Amino acid sequence: MKQVNVRIGLLACSTALMLFAAGCTLKSTIKETTDTTSNVTGTTSGRTWFTEDGLLHPEHKLTAFMALNQPNMEQDLSRGQGEYVTSLGTLLGLSDDRQAAFHAKAQGEFETLMTSDHEARLQQLRMLAR
Fold this sequence. Notes:
Elements: H1 2-44, H2 61-68, H3 70-79, H4 83-91, H5 96-108, H6 110-115, H7 118-128
């Protein structure tokens, strides 16, 4: 019985050691991969979108918001109201008292905004916010 307990103990210890060693290797491999990806995207894109803390730089927030929320933005812009168009106004720096006017202008320009390319659309939205 003693030998069985010793063998089980040794088996458990060796299994734990192998898992620990494999975990360290896996962690190192993941870190190397993400570091390499960060270095490549940071140096080849011509601009960095994120801070060292992983936060989006303020100058890229509008572009990211529009890209990630395009279908919802189109619906809100066509109606001239909604949380997405309000958030858009906030990203453009509008105060609460200027939001309604922005919503109406954006709704009036909906057809133009939806036929423009992405950069032109952002420029038009910035102009509407003035």
